User: Which sequence fits this backbone?
């Protein structure tokens, strides 16, 4: 399916009881590689996280046209033509 779950290797939340956990994750599809870093520059019990995404290897399937719900095939409008032609 090409889905990845990314999280920093360091904890992002620091509990007063010594229980450190990772709260911040990223779920991505078609974005590889993603690196995540817990930034410990603030005086808080929760560190911000930086997710770096490389768009050089971004893969996305081509868009597929939506089917007509009515069965009517619409043609592009040309301003120089009369209606019904």
Assistant:
């Amino acid at each position: 399916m090409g889905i990845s779950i990314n999280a920093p290797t360091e904890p992002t939340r620091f509990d007063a009881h010594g229980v450190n956990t990772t709260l911040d994750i990223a779920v991505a599809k078609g974005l590889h590689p993603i690196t995540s870093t817990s930034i410990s520059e603030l005086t808080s019990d929760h560190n911000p996280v930086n997710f770096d995404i490389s768009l050089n290897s971004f893969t996305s399937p081509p868009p597929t046209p939506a089917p007509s719900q009515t069965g009517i095939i619409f043609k592009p409008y040309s301003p120089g033509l009369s209606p019904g032609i």
The beta strands are 3-6, 13-14, 20-21, 26-29, 34-38, 49-53. The mean pLDDT is 78. The chain has no helices and six strands. The longest strand covers residues 34-38.
